[in-house]
Design goal:
There is one protein chain. The protein is of the alpha/beta class. It has four domains: 120 residues, NAD(P)-binding Rossmann-like Domain (Rossmann fold), CATH 3.40.50.720; 88 residues, 2-Layer Sandwich (Alpha-Beta Plaits), CATH 3.30.70; 117 residues, 3-Layer(aba) Sandwich (Rossmann fold), CATH 3.40.50.720; 96 residues, Alpha-Beta Plaits (2-Layer Sandwich), CATH 3.30.70.1450. Helices cover 30% and strands 26% of the residues. It contains 15 helices and 22 strands. The strands form four sheets. The protein has a six-stranded parallel sheet with strand order 3-2-1-4-5-6, with helices on both faces. Strands 14-13-12-15-16-17 form a six-stranded parallel sheet, with helices on both faces. Strands 7-8-11-9-10 form a five-stranded antiparallel sheet. Helix 1 crosses helix 14 and helix 6 packs across helix 14. The longest helix has 14 residues. It is globular.
């Protein structure tokens, strides 16, 4: 495909890296010549210096001949205008706008304007959704939903005290749960029955929704509800998370250092205790009962401060800690230093966008939190060679495994004798290296 990306910020850079790796022809429009020079020297792409909300620049980028136009600048207004101008050049181009504040979707817009956009993507909203999913399985570091919410793939870290350390996977096999991948020492392993579980492994486990209790007990954990949350940072993500949680029975405290913002948040958020202070202030955290907090979230715009605040919260007794990160170089570092959950708005947003770029048979995509693998929901085509034979006889590419299959109203965990039917929804787990082969497989006729 030919794809034009307006904006080479954090979201745009991440997207072009992924799309170039998948063989797409990419044109990037940005006003920063230094950034464009860096990108063109690293990737085989076309670059154009200029403002994407000017018609002449979109014409120079030949947007009319593109398959997809992605407006991912730091300005909501510029992205909306750029998509409207792109539509004036060609109504056939699929248009995606990255939006943070102005709108969340097409609702509320007139039909005439809404029809100009194929998709809105909000990285902050995607990050909050990531965190909210974790409340369904307390103790998990990642949760992905498939098949209309009937199948979950959960990421969980194995503690040194867990009863299953040293056991082989075949000893843990149950009809309800399957371990589809192990992440260990920076590597994604698609395991076999004789693989041993080790302390600090991150396991990706597939099961029907809400059927993880027995597995978590084997890990030595009880699924206690998250009742007390402390949020560091009252910006877009912190505010959204507090607002979403405020309607339930969760005790919420939000810390921000900006007094004006604190006043605004206090008036806006009901059932939220807003504290004006520093999330790295040890005495403040102690006074506010950090040792009773189930989840501490570092959600300020200062990523380094988020990390420091989360580490301090963990040291002072918070049961789980999470940080919001946009720098990809931090993704693999954070779990190693003791922080439980890392959330990348860029990766979450890109997963949503990639669904539009990939085959129409792919109905859902999640990248794992460190971006080393993907979990995809694929609708099996009648002519596909994944249809009609038991999974044990299906020669899947290296680094790929079937996690679950959903037929009509029935969702089941994949086993060797599972047979995929035409129209089945199939959940695949694929390492980054195995992904291109998987795409070839599901797209084959």
């Amino acid at each position: 495909m030919r794809i034009v990306i307006a904006g080479a910020g954090s979201v745009g850079k991440y997207l072009l890296e992924r799309l170039v790796a998948e063989g797409h022809a990419i044109v990037v429009i940005d006003q920063d010549e230094t950034v464009l020079e860096e990108l063109s020297s690293t990737y085989d792409i076309q670059t154009l210096k200029g403002n994407a909300s000017m018609l002449a620049n979109l014409e120079r980028a030949d947007v009319a001949s593109a398959d997809i136009f992605i407006a991912a600048t730091d300005s909501d207004e510029a992205n909306l205008i750029a998509c409207m101008l792109a539509d004036s050049l060609s109504s056939e181009v699929r248009k995606i706008a990255r939006i943070r504040e102005l709108v969340t979707d097409a609702s509320g817009l007139s039909d005439r304007i809404a029809d100009l956009f194929d998709h809105f993507i909000n990285p902050d909203s995607e990050a909050v959704d990531f965190l909210l999913r974790l409340f369904q399985v307390p103790g998990a570091v990642e949760l992905m939903e498939f098949c209309g919410g009937r199948i979950w793939v959960v990421g969980v870290v194995v503690s040194a005290e867990a009863a299953l350390v040293g056991k082989r996977l075949k000893q843990l096999s149950t009809p309800e749960v399957v371990i589809v991948a192990i992440q260990r020492d920076g590597q994604v392993i698609i395991p076999g029955g004789n693989d041993l579980i080790q302390a600090s492994d991150e396991l990706y486990v597939a099961a029907r929704a809400n059927e993880f209790d027995s597995f978590f007990k084997a890990l030595g954990r009880e699924l206690h509800p998250t009742r007390h949350v402390m949020i560091h940072g009252g910006g877009s993500i912190g505010r959204r998370l507090a607002k979403e949680l405020s309607g339930g029975d969760v005790k919420i405290k939000l810390i921000d250092s900006n007094s004006e913002r604190c006043e605004q948040l206090a008036s806006e958020l009901s059932n939220v205790l807003v504290l004006c202070g520093d999330g790295t202030d040890q005495e403040l955290l102690k006074e506010e009962g950090i040792d009773d907090v189930d989840l501490f979230v570092g959600a300020s715009h200062d990523e380094e401060k988020n990390i420091l605040a989360a580490l301090l919260a963990k040291k002072l007794g918070a049961k789980m800690t999470a940080v919001i990160i946009t720098k990809n170089s931090y993704l693999n570092l954070i779990p190693e230093i003791g922080i439980d959950i890392v959330v990348s708005p860029n990766i979450a947003a890109a997963s949503s966008i990639l669904k539009f770029v990939r085959s129409e048979s792919i109905s859902s995509i999640f990248s794992t939190r460190d971006d080393r693998a993907e979990v995809l929901e694929v609708v099996a085509d009648e002519a596909s060679r994944i249809v009609g034979i038991p999974l044990r006889d299906l020669k899947l590419p290296h680094g790929v495994i079937v996690a679950a299959v959903h037929d009509d109203e029935s969702a089941s965990i994949a086993r060797g004798d599972t047979v995929i039917s035409p129209g089945s929804r199939v959940v695949f787990f694929a390492s980054r290296k195995g992904l291109p082969k998987l795409q070839e497989l599901v797209n084959e006729d």
